[in-house]
Design brief:
The protein contains nine helices and 18 strands. By secondary structure, it is an alpha+beta fold. Among the domains are: 157 residues, FAD/NAD(P)-binding domain; 89 residues, 2-Layer Sandwich (D-Amino Acid Oxidase, Chain A, domain 2).
């Protein structure tokens, strides 16, 4: 349940491993993923994602979150190769450059690079001399950088389309309807649908973002609060530049938590994605959008002069009181794969692999 990038990845991976899978999401009626509300907010955060894959550059180097990122990095490489061979390529741009705007950020980047290089990872420090050819185009101040060559960025829309098209070719069933309740039945699950229909399944995988709480309540009652989720809104912009960025621009640039993502495949390289904000709740703040547009008054002239082509918003599900994501088994034959917050695109493959392992090991007990 849920045809965002995580739900779709789970369904595609399971179908490819020989399982019979139905993907359930009302947003599939329009060929997209997830519902929009009248205010234009994408209920599925996947459609508002920028697709930046930060695995090696993650601030930790051990533990569950680190291991999920490393596993996903390897799987995304495999998935992109396999999908391209079957006629469904996903645009990918290698390299993420983290920038430091003050002394404290410089220290953090230096320490991060040292720790990761000690693990054999290719994180390269960029000093002022190395940054000099880029200085007219970088936000200011920029004092230092850390380049992560194995990290990168994929197009989320193209990834969703590739997984869906390849999944359908493999026999993945798609149903554009919402589930309203779950009930255990004959060793499996009875799934009640909004239109009055019913589906039966041996296993149910919940990946519908914040809507997971409602479905869990139908099964667990107030115990569902253990897996509570809250919405966090993100706004992003697509800009048209007056001239393309230099060809030596190093992939995605991250400045004080904001991503500048060039799109060399669009309009002769004159498109750039900029985002994303972090706003509690589900209502966009116009002031946050202004700050994003101007990088908090640090935007270089080329960015200030760009034309806004598209403004989009999305809701990301964040676990309450628990680390993201929620990969849990609340009941026998029921798996929860949601709450990925800002890392749904990055962690989709590792989440799908976890789901498949639980099902194939036959771990029906919660």
């Amino acid at each position: 349940m849920g045809a965002g990038i995580v739900g779709l990845a789970c369904a595609w991976w399971l179908q490819g491993r020989g399982h019979q899978v139905m993907l359930l999401d009302p947003g599939l009626a329009g060929g997209g993923t997830g519902d929009d509300d009248p205010g234009g907010v994408q209920r599925s955060g996947s459609r508002a994602a920028l697709g930046v894959l930060m695995a090696d550059s993650f601030h930790r180097d051990r533990g569950r979150a680190w291991e999920l990122r490393q596993r996903s990095q390897k799987l995304w490489s495999q998935w992109r190769r396999d999908l391209a061979q079957r006629g469904h390529p996903i645009p990918y741009r290698a390299g993420v450059l983290l920038l430091a705007a003050d002394g404290a950020e410089v220290e953090r980047l230096v320490a991060l690079g040292a720790r990761k290089r000690a693990l054999g990872l290719p994180l390269e420090p960029w000093d002022q001399q190395r940054l000099e050819p880029l200085q007219p185009t970088l936000p200011q101040p920029t004092l230092a950088g850390l380049h992560c060559g194995r990290d990168g960025q994929i197009d989320p829309g193209a990834a969703l389309a590739a997984l869906a098209a390849d999944g359908r070719q493999r026999g993945l069933a798609l149903r554009a309807e919402a589930a309203v309740a779950l009930q255990p039945e004959r060793g499996g699950w009875r799934v009640e649908l909004a239109g009055g229909g019913v589906e039966q399944a041996a296993w149910v995988v919940l990946a519908p973002g914040t809507a997971a709480s409602t479905l869990l309540e139908s099964v667990l009652g107030k115990e569902r609060d253990r897996w509570a989720l809250e919405p966090v809104l993100g706004q992003a912009l697509e800009l048209e530049l007056e001239a393309p960025l230099p060809s030596h621009w190093p992939g995605t640039v991250v400045w004080r938590g904001l991503n500048l993502v060039p799109r060399p495949d669009l309009e002769g390289g004159r498109r750039l994605w900029l985002g994303a904000t972090l706003e509690p709740g589900s209502r966009a703040d116009p002031d946050e959008l202004v700050q994003l547009r101007q990088l908090g008054d640090a935007a270089p002239e080329w960015l200030r002069g760009a034309r806004v082509v598209r403004h989009w918003q999305g809701l990301r599900p964040r676990p309450v009181g628990q680390p993201a994501p929620l990969l849990e088994q609340p009941a026998a034959g029921l798996l929860l794969a949601t709450g990925h917050y800002r890392n749904g695109v990055l962690l989709a493959p590792a989440s799908a692999a976890w789901v498949a392992e639980r099902i194939e090991a036959g771990h029906r007990d919660a």
